[in-house]
Amino acid sequence: MTELTVLIVIDMQKGMQDANRLANRLPPRNNPHAEDHIARLLTAWRAAGQPVVVVRHISRSPTSVFAPGQSGAEFQERFVPLAHEHVVEKNVPDAFINTGLERWLHVRGIRKLVLAGVSTNNSVESTARSAGNLGFAAAVVADATFAYAMTDFGGTPRSAEDVHLMALANLHGEYATVLTTDDVLRQLDRGLSASAAAR
């Protein structure tokens, strides 16, 4: 039997989409095709019958676009979970904190995780760090995540690509393995082929 690998899609909500449309809401981002890559992963996971977890941020701030009841808290249309897929609601960046995600994975014997979503240096990085620290084998999909430009602690402006690449560098080899969408889909195909051959 093929070992289960869960795809975890993080914070692909309408509020993030709306913020991207409003030039004054957020700084420039990188990876403009990240959503397309996430959709490819989601389609492949569903076709393979592998588990999917869809995470959304629910803010404690009533003025946030991610506050309960706000349209921004809803999933973007192409990332709406199916009825049988597990939904995790979090109110801090890390999807493991106060959500029951760790227990959900352990109960199902799932040790392998593939992470995609937003943003690379925030919710994706914090979730990947916890995954590694908790003993899961995590992969972060570099082209299925994205970040925003920001100013570093020394006052130097950093591009979205710089922020993205540094977050990935923080994770790779320490908490997770950084892969591309094509890498992950090839691994998924190999695993399914091996399972079929073993029957």
UniProtKB/TrEMBL annotation:
Keywords: Hydrolase
Molecular function as annotated in GO: hydrolase activity
Protein name: Cysteine hydrolase
Source superkingdom: Bacteria
Domain Isochorismatase-like: 5-183
Keyword Hydrolase: yes
